[in-house]
Amino acid sequence: MPADSLIPPSRSIDPDVPPLPEPDADGPDPRRWLALAVIAVAQLMVVLDASIVNIALPDAGLDLGISAANIQWVVTAYTLAFGGLLLLGGRIADFTGRKRAFLIGLIGFAGASALGGLAPNQELLFAARGLQGAFAALLAPAALSLLAVTFTDPKERARAFGVFGAISGGGAAIGLILGGVLTEYASWRWTLGVNVPIALATAVFAIGLVKESRAAGDRRYDVPGVLLSAAGLVSLVYGFSKAAEEGVGWTDPVTLTLLAAAAVLLVTFVLYEQRASHPLLPLRVVLDRNRGGSYLVFLLVGAGIFAIFLFLTFYFQQTLGYSPLDSGFAFLPFSGGIIVGAGIVSQVLPRIGPRPLIIGGLVLAALGMLWLTRIGETSSYVTEVLPALLAISLGMAAVFVPASSTALVGVESHDTGIASAVLNTSQQVGGSLGLALLNTFYASAVTGYLVDNPGAAPGAAFVQGYHVAFIWAAVFLAVALVISIVLIRAKKDDLPAEMVLAA
């Protein structure tokens, strides 16, 4: 860890803004575990909302008359706003107060969800999903940074990050289950409306249970940095989304223009941040080897793990003939493995440190992904799919918990929110990249199989496509493994001192 990350943050503050007390000024907050429950519910809502609507898309499209070409905007509007505004959301949380940002995010998310659930047409639904993404971009980094400043004891912090890791890894699968239940037994509108009571109740409890904290020192916003990063991230995520669309692909002029614009904007952003007096993203946050390695691991894991939810959903419904609800429940062991694994990992983390867990978890997850290449048109769920799901889920638990912690190791309190936002951005960009790349590999494999085997049934071609997607997902995890071995050096003895400084 570089020496400058051991320097305590400056206590000089804006004379017009009174300082807020440090969260641990009078010892640990006796209500910190109740605060964790509140933060965990909010994080779960953000994570599962990226998947809960997916199963409801056919019903929503039929109800509102949305064309097949436009239905993807229900998902894309959310991901564009979420991915594009995360860095800004992290800085707002640091400067205005993490609790305040958390509450605003919850209330705004509830309002946007209600608007989407009541939408009479596609335009209002798309706008509501964009608003959801914008408020999620404020809520997600605030939630993670609140964990960092609430739990300062290493063992307690490991448990808290265990909960966070379980939610980050299992939330998408829970969203598929809940989306299937609500769509089948109520209405697609409830996949959005269910957020309203949950968000409002969470906000009410947060008022009394969550303690406020915010960055000391300079609190001026980097407006050019905001514009460059938001435009660059939106272009990048949208470019990946366009590449994944049927009939568009990577060589389409729109895709190439978006990706080129993203490259120019993001390179310009980095160059500007090197010289900015009040940078949106201080480069010290990402250049530390432990934090930088953690961000890269999350990006690649996000790209690889997408294969589970996308292609196994296709496999369950198109190949094995499952209903949407059955498909959702087929992912239940994955969520269970994440939750159980995260509980175990949080106990082990303070004893052996993050590096062995991350390395072991990535090895286990990659092997589980390769196991999925054994599936066929008539495979048994219990013998072919379930062992792989459990291996991947346990492996991911061993990655999410320690990597969420090392992503904040040694970060100055002034930068906690932005460091949390970079972590979320890595996941979001990784998921978008995985969608585009794996979809392309899948489609090419299906087409190639049908060309090479003219009389083959489409089902066999689909299975071949799944195999290729899972192999490439395993490659992403393998690259993440190499990065974790090379860059992440934090040991168990490092965590206590660094975690106190990070708080």
UniProtKB/TrEMBL annotation:
It is a multi-pass membrane protein. It holds the Pfam family MFS_1. Residues 35-492 form the Major facilitator superfamily (MFS) profile domain. This is Puromycin resistance protein pur8. Keywords: Cell membrane, Membrane, Transmembrane, Transmembrane helix, Transport. It is found in: Cell membrane. GO terms for cellular component: plasma membrane. GO terms for molecular function: transmembrane transporter activity. The chain crosses the membrane at residues 33-57, 69-89, 101-119, 131-149, 161-182, 188-209, 221-241, 253-272, 293-316, 328-349, 356-373, 385-411, 432-451, 466-488. InterPro entries: EmrB-like, MFS, MFS_dom, MFS_trans_sf. It comes from Modestobacter caceresii. Residues 1-26 are annotated as: Disordered.
